[in-house]
Amino acid sequence: MNYPTIDPAIDPSTAPSTALPTIGLPSRGSILRRLSLGALSCSCILALAPALMTSQALAEDEGDSFWTDFIPSTDTRLIFVSSSEGRDSNTGLTADSPVKSLEKGYALLRDGSPDWMLLKRGDTWNEALPNWGKSGRSESEVMILGAYGEETARPQVRPDGDTVGMQLVGGSEIEHVAFVGFRLEPLDRTIDQSSSGIRMLRSSHNILFEDLYVSGFAANFIFQEHAGSTISDIRINGCVVVDAWSRSAHAQGLYAEGVGNFIIENSVFDHNGFDTERGAHPTIFNHNIYIQNEADGVVVRNNIISNASSHGIQLRSGGIIEDNLFAGNPLQILFGGGNYPNENGVTGHVKRNLIMYGRGISSSLPRSFGIETSNVRSAQFSENILIDGEVGYNGYPIRIHGPSAYGMSDLVISNNTLINWNGTIDIHHSPEGQEYRDISFIGNTIIRDMNNNHGNSNFNKSFVSAFDAEDPSLTFSENTYRHKGMHNRPFLSGGSVIDGDTWLSSVDQRSSIEEISEMPTGIGLGDYMASFRSDGSVDGFIAEARKLSRAHQDDRFTPGAVYEWISGQVD
């Protein structure tokens, strides 16, 4: 029997009597964080750093890897679990004597201790994980559910299609736990089953989900305040969350309500909310990421968010959305709003996102929205690149509107680039009882084929339509409007047409309107793929992105790499 791999940096004379496994595979550029917290001076690597779980780094990762690392404490108990080699009569304390069932492995963990329960890579359990109610010791000494072994494939947990994959439900609080490096997917789910993947309802603090592959549930992740519970300091990092669907219930990649200090980063959310082959068709209610108003401290960064039933993300609570790639979502980003909006509006920013390939939900539900916002107290939308919205009846690249109760103020839309997004930038009127103040549209570049109507009846879409372009709440300045061809409604104010010269002289005096002979080309995901391999396509890019794991990290399939390349092509 093979023993767990020992990291060569470990000094065997200082290691505990149980050989320490390589829990997470070393990643390119990874620098182990050394913690002087009574832990061993060794580099037993797990994809975990509790310092990052609380966003208060104890040490900086000097490499280019986003995987987190952890050092076991001197009294860490390692519990080995193997469906292929284990027996529940074994001790479970060495890789030579693993237990078999997930329930037995969980029972051997000591509540309040930095113990690690390790599932053997390549093994499969046709059972759910236990309802998790145990905690680690502290922010620096966390309890871990992870993986071990020589294989690169994540261990698989395959509960029955009617069973929640992992529950965190109960009266007592749990804290300082990391769930790392396994695959969770229902076994032989039928069309009438609608279970959840990971469902957190109990009070929880300082919890990490990293390097997980969660797929095929009605809701892959649910975080929800329940019966007075408090959920805070939750981090999702480097996960693949895909293919949620249901024929009878709302289906989400992730739903969160009542969560504080919530970080979602370096992950892939793809094709959540529908499965047409199983008769679960796209609807307006199902999304990749859906975060309700009752959340705060939300950060969504460096994710690929694609092909949702409806929204790439609904961030009703406001927060930070930065450095993501959105592709093929009918409504890519919703910021603010909601049926019970945050009083006085939300705050945050939407920055350096690449937003591509708007589409409709169905033939009867056209969308192709880029960024939609309402109920804002203070926010910035800047340095985003929007490319290729679907031609149709809607298609707003940016839309400001006011169905919520608290109006719009201190909103700056600046230095964004919009290429071939065929709808109108829409600054909708303020509903009765609301107030608009200090809305600025500055330094943006809009490149449009103004004759690109494809024969539909909703033609002649303007660059900008404002409820009143000369209203004192609005500022337009230093924008560039580039157009191939032209129609007779380039700008609208209160429904009245404004021609280009009048717009520049009376509304947007420090801006320019330029005619071009050809639209930019060669700036799609397929073109990006073709720059380094011969089989470039949008579907091919997403397929490669979905392969993300600690064992397989290709930096070419990250939002930052694509944003940098497209920025260079546009310049």
Topology:
Layout: H1 50-53, E1 78-81, H2 102-107, E2 116-120, E3 124-125, E4 143-148, E5 156-157, E6 166-168, E7 174-180, E8 183-184, E9 196-200, E10 204-210, E11 213-215, E12 219-224, E13 231-237, E14 240-242, E15 252-257, E16 259-265, E17 268-270, E18 287-291, E19 296-301, E20 304-306, E21 311-315, E22 319-322, E23 325-327, E24 331-336, E25 346-351, E26 354-356, E27 369-374, E28 376-382, E29 385-389, E30 398-400, E31 408-414, E32 417-421, E33 425-427, E34 436-442, E35 445-449, E36 464-466, E37 474-477, E38 480-484, E39 491-493, E40 496-498, H3 500-506, E41 512-515, H4 525-530, H5 538-545, H6 559-570
Parallel strand pairs: 1-2, 2-4, 3-5, 4-7, 5-8, 6-9, 7-10, 8-11, 9-12, 10-13, 11-14, 12-15, 13-16, 14-17, 15-18, 16-19, 17-20, 18-21, 19-22, 20-23, 21-24, 22-25, 23-26, 24-27, 25-28, 26-29, 27-30, 28-31, 29-32, 30-33, 31-34, 32-35, 33-36, 34-37, 35-38, 36-39, 38-41
Antiparallel strand pairs: 39-40
